[in-house]
Amino acid sequence: MMKKRIFGVLRCIIFMSILIASLYYINKVLVTKDTAENSNWPCTSSYHQFYKMEKDSIDVLFLGSSVAVNAFSPQEIYNTYGIRSYNLGSTQQSIILSYFWLEEALRFQSPKAVVLDTRFLFDRDFNLPLNVSEGLVRKCMDPMQWSEVKRNAVKEICELDSSQEEISYYLTNVRFHTRWEELEEQDFVPEEYEKSELKGYYPLYVYGGKSYNTFNPGKDTKTKAPFQKNMATYLDRMVTLCKEHDIKLILVSLPGNAMNDKINNALTGYSKDKGIEFYNMCETKTYEKIGAKLPKENTLAHANLWGSIKLSNFIGGELKEKYGVPSVQDEQYECTKAYYEHIKKNCEIRHIDDTSEYLKALKDDHYTVLIAKSYESAKSLDKNILESLKELGLKKNFRKMEAFSYVAVIEPGKSVIEKTGKRDVVAYSGTIRDKNTMIEMSSNIYKNGTNSSIVINGHDYCRPESALTVVVYDNELRKVIDIRTIHGE
Fold first, then answer.
1. Neighbouring C-alpha atoms within 13 Å toward the C-beta of 334
2. d(Cα 35, Cα 48) in Å, to the nearest integer?
3. SS3 category, 405
4. How far apart (Å, rounded) are the C-alpha atoms in residues 468 and 388?
5. CB 450 within 8 A of CB 444
6. What does the alpha-carbon distance between residue 472 and residue 464 come to, in Å, rounded to a whole number?
7. What is the pTM of this model?
8. What is the pLDDT along the chain (489 residues), one digit of tens a residue?
9. Residue 261 in contact with residue 217, Cβ under 8 Å?
């Protein structure tokens, strides 16, 4: 009888253990993820990487919305000034979210300075008590590890916004149970493989406009725009928290943020009252110090790579000279220098106008290059283009390929695959990136019309209006980083 009871208890323990483990795994898989593969603001991998940083190895924290994510590059600041920083910004991160991420960061780090983007201090949506929607709150809060900080954050968030339920933060499958049909590779990648080598920063490559009307303060120095009520409360708490930990709190308004006398007066007056610094980068005198030249060095709203270099070097210089943040050699930043250069190349490559030079730049171990022919005009390609295609490893001579269909796969470390067919369809199916990425390609010249396709994981990237479509897949980032169409003469 005793043995039966013991076995019964053991069976219950085993069952509950399996149930708990299953729920834990399901919760992890179903929660939405923003990584470099699917977002320009990959906060999921940014936050997971933060937890991997060595204790007390970060001297500056950046907090705020997506404009801060694109503006401040910790690697650029380290390369130039030796300052160790981390960007904890996220899409539409309101001040309450910034506050709790600062609390969370202080469990592991002892920063000397915190730079806070003020974009969400003011009302963005009068109907939302958190100034942002629940979905954006979840992007920021779901990756946070469970501790007293997160428990308090969830409690206060749900108290402020009665439409949210605490249980949905503990059991994320309750909130995201409908995601089964949209799960992708990144949903199953273990956290230890999720990296943010750029320490929370993410670059954009699109150039900006040709001009920017900077802000010049008017005569009205008294009228102030009101802070959103809840944001004001948590900003006060952040000021207090920073003073308790002897941290310099620096407020910034980035170029392109909404700016007028009322907003400037509110931020300037608050910073003076609290004894903290405020940089209005929308203001002419400060913007000129940044030294950005449009359209390439875009710093407006969401800064691009070249604009972020200007912004990062400006704030890095202030942190070093004015606030005395020291230079420290750190392997965590040394080992990601090469990755940063690769990301910069990804941005630069999109702006190479000369097709021959562009093709030469694709000879890189990071890239898999997929090519499909759509029109017969490929036979009249410029000789410099043909030579560059040869340098990539292609053997076929397009000059002699009248009425030929054609596809090619150039994968680093492997033999080049070329498929041709005269007046017929050619197709290729296979995998790249160690069998983790599926590709299907076809070319059809003069049979039922002209057509081609380059399908990667179910998405067709081909542009059939061109003689050749060149698709560049970054094996490290696990995504297509550029598509180029090449036309005949």
1. 5
2. 10
3. strand
4. 14
5. yes
6. 16
7. 0.88
8. 565 566 555 666 665 555 444 444 444 444 455 666 667 778 888 999 999 999 999 999 999 999 999 999 999 999 999 999 999 999 999 999 999 999 999 999 999 999 999 999 997 766 788 888 888 899 999 999 999 999 999 999 999 999 999 988 887 644 544 434 444 555 455 554 467 899 999 999 999 999 999 999 999 999 999 999 999 999 999 999 999 999 999 999 999 899 999 999 999 999 999 999 999 999 999 999 999 999 999 999 899 999 999 999 999 999 999 999 999 999 999 999 999 999 999 999 999 999 999 999 999 999 999 999 887 666 678 889 999 999 999 998 887 777 788 899 999 989 999 999 887 789 999 998 877 889 999 988 765 556 789 999 889 998 877 778 999 999 988 899 999 988 765
9. yes
Beta strands in 386-478 (DSSP E): 404-410, 417-422, 425-432, 437-444, 451-456, 459-460, 468-474
Q: Tell me the two tokens of residue 321.
A: 């000279």
Q: Are the CB atoms for 276 and 323 separated by under 8 Å?
A: no
Identify residue 350 by its one-letter amino acid code: R
Query: Which DSSP string corresponds to 272-337?
Result: HHHT-EEEETTBHHHHHHHT--TTTS--SSS--HHHHHHHHHHHHHHHHHTT-PPP---HHHHTTH
Q: Are 345 and 108 in contact (CB under 8 A)?
A: no
* Of the candidates 131, 94, 119, the residue with the CA atom closest to the CA atom of residue 282: 119
CB contact at 8 A, 282 and 257: yes
Residue 307 exposed, middle or buried by CB count within 10 Å (0-12, 13-18, 19+): buried
Q: How far apart are CA 250 and CA 280, in angstroms?
A: 11
Angle, vertex CA 189, rays to CA 184 and CA 191, nearest 5: 135
Backbone angles phi, psi at 485, to 5 degrees: -100, 135
Amino acid at site 183: L
Q: What is the DSSP string of 220-246?
A: --S--PPPPHHHHHHHHHHHHHHHHTT
